[in-house]
Amino acid sequence: MQETMISLSKLKPGKGMELVHKPIPSIEDHEILIQVKAASICGTDVHIYTWDAWAAGRIKNLPQTMGHELAGIVVKVGSRVKRIKVGDHVSCETHIVCGECEFCRTGQGHICVNTQVLGVDRDGAFAEYIAVPADNAWVNDKSVPFEYSSIQEPLGNAVHTVLSGPVVGKSVAIVGVGPIGMLAVDVAKAAGARVVYAIDINDYRLNLARSIGADASIHSLNEDVVQRIMELTNGLGVDVVCEMSGNAKALNQAFEFVKLGGRVSILGVPTKTVEIDVAKHIVFKGIQIHGITGRRMYDTWYQVKGLIESGKLHLKELVTHVLPYSKYEEAFELMESGQCGKIVLMFNQEEVK
Ligand SMILES: [Zn+2]
Ligand SMILES: [Zn+2]
After folding, report:
1. What's the pLDDT score for residue 139?
2. Which partner from 61, 174, 182, 270 sits 20 to 30 angstroms from 292, CA to CA?
3. Which one, of 174, 194, 193, 192, lies nearest residue 184 by Cα?
4. pLDDT classification of 136: cutoffs 50, 70, 90
């Protein structure tokens, strides 16, 4: 095997990322080496690419390979690895957890206090090869194309958010239909929601949401969102809100248009403290609020796998762009423009010598 590989790395603070050659990572006894075939771009990658305040405060280990949503083929396994075999097609849970803290030991690895994130705290997936703990590998059915299996990690965020309470027969509003919100629309429909409403400020994404089955789309700059939801729900509001925008105003609107006794599950991350009328919007409405982070290990992954195998998801429509890794600048520009669903970068597409 060759000794060096191509990686898309962040070399220094500031906007951008570079194509560099670096050594193929070596693996420890508990790790596996994956030949990456596809890696999708996450909002987190865009934060790091553009180097905003969050990235500047969070990323400590430059230079570092970026990316974390991947699919590939296992080419090497460490001496202690049993479950994963060379040749397996895998994706990865991006949270590397300790397995020893109170949360890991009580089935809550998604809030492990010692979490390390691929492509954030250590080298990531925008590369020809990546080394990860075998525990994090999720074995894929070989019939699923790599560009679709690479998006299981964000799909897991959507599944975790939508299914953190019942949705069958319910009205669901997805606030913010960026790539994860879009997946949430699809998951809610597939899981039996009665109606799903998509709310955003981006026409391209609202149209995409409609095309995969959202029952109504609401442009929150052009329309009064609360009034529109009330019209659609006989004045009662929606049973379930999935907040994917991280926008303070949108969050407050969500508390207004959620039904009495309803549920608000929040995945979107506001950049500042948000003011909320706790008495009016939470206590007296008797609602439930869920904070959603990561994916439940590995319950969420089994749900994701089952949903993909059910054939009910619109992965073809939601992966709007598949590009070779060399076109990463174009890919990130597209992400920043918002004129896209999920974008996937392909690696190792030529025959391996
Ligand atoms: Zn991600
Ligand atoms: Zn832990």
Report:
1. 98
2. 61
3. 174
4. very high
Q: What are the boundaries of each domain within the chain?
A: 4-150+314-346, 156-291
Q: Which CATH class is domain 156-291?
A: alpha beta
Helix (H, G, I), strand (E, B) or coil at 73: strand
Closest CA to 149 of 138, 133, 163: 138
State the virtual CA torsion across 243, 244, 246, 248 in degrees, nearest 10: -30
What is the whole-number distance in angstroms between the Cα of residue 133 and the centre of ligand 2? 14
Active site positions, annotated = 44, 47
Tokens for 239? 């049973």
- 67 CA to centre of ligand 1 in angstroms: 8
Residue 76 Cα, ligand 1 centroid: separation in angstroms?
25
Judged by its nearest atom, the ligand closest to the C-alpha of residue 294 is 1
Cβ-Cβ contacts under 8 Å for 16 (sequence gap 6 or more): 10, 49
State the pTM of this model. Answer: 0.96
| Nearest ligand for residue 125 CA | 1
pLDDT in tens, 223-262: 999 999 999 999 999 999 999 999 999 999 999 999 999 9
